[in-house]
Design brief:
It is built from 8 helices and no strands.
């Protein structure tokens, strides 16, 4: 039920996804939904958790035991969004503007992003210990730079139907973190082409 609700809410939005839509998609009864989730708000909370799990599963370098290679994390992330039909929206980020009016949902969404940021902070911290991250600052703040680059880059990439805004945002974030290496943006691509 959560997986179906997540797909519907990602495609249509939370407000445009009625409980009846989820029930029809899953072939379940209203009593099951209310038994497990207590209502639509509880279902949305479960969807946020589900989407966070998807995001983290797609970024295995954030797991404990990471090698701290922030550049490899960015390259892996770009590979996900370069394939298929082009840039994808973030399954978690797409919900953010939709939970503003409900303090419970907004708090849960913020906590989900905090958990993602913690994984990034761990990656950055290990990267600093290994000499792969050279910027000063707290790992949590530097992780916020990465997270903002991902969210902003994906939003612009989705609008442009081109992964380059995400490449540019991640390149800028890696530069801010003092991560050395070749740019993620392919040679010859100009920023002017995006404006």
């Amino acid at each position: 039920m959560v997986e179906a609700a997540a797909a519907l809410m990602q495609a249509r939005g939370i407000a445009a996804t009625a409980v009846s839509d989820v029930l029809a998609a899953t072939g379940t009864g209203k009593s099951q939904l209310y038994h497990h989730f207590g209502g639509k708000q509880g279902l949305v909370l479960a969807v946020i958790d589900h989407q966070l799990a998807r995001v983290l599963a797609a970024q295995p370098r954030l797991a404990p035991g990471t090698d701290g290679d922030v550049r490899a994390w960015a390259t892996d992330l770009l590979a996900v969004h370069r394939g298929g039909d082009g840039p994808l929206s973030c399954p978690l980020g797409v919900l953010s503007g939709q939970v503003d009016d409900d303090p419970v949902l907004r708090g849960h969404q913020a906590a989900a992003f905090d958990r993602w940021r913690e994984g990034l902070a761990h990656l950055v911290g290990v990267g600093r210990e290994r000499g792969l991250v050279n910027a000063a600052g707290e790992p949590a703040e530097l992780a916020g730079v990465l997270l903002a680059a991902v969210q902003g880059g994906l939003m612009l990439a989705r609008l442009a139907r081109d992964v380059r805004p995400l490449e540019i945002a991640l390149d800028a974030a890696l530069a801010r973190l003092g991560v050395h290496g070749a740019p993620l943006l392919p040679p010859g691509d100009a920023l002017d082409d995006l404006v």
